[in-house]
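Tokens for chain A. Residues wanted.
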């Protein structure tokens, strides 16, 4: 009986260690997410406005000259400056 309990405990410790190792790798992958063009899981990518630094969904913003702006007004202000 003691051997079965020891084997079960050993099994759960190994399973726990594997899950932690895979979880750490997953978190490392998530740290790279901002550099990827499309966010995972259907969530929309958020970008910082070059004028005011507000975080705005990519589809709601404006891109001018390779830079992202939260509104057309901020894009125009940047061009005028």
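Reply:
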């Amino acid at each position: 009986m003691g051997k079965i309990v020891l084997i079960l405990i050993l099994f759960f410790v190994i399973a726990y260690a594997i899950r932690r190792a895979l979880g750490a790798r997953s978190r490392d992958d998530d740290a790279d997410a901002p550099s990827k063009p499309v966010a995972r899981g259907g969530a929309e990518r958020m970008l910082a406005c070059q004028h005011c630094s507000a975080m705005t969904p990519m589809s709601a913003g404006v891109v001018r000259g390779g830079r992202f702006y939260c509104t057309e007004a901020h894009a125009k202000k940047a061009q005028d400056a």
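The helical segments are 2-31, 72-80. Strands lie at 46-48, 55-57, 62-64, 67-69.
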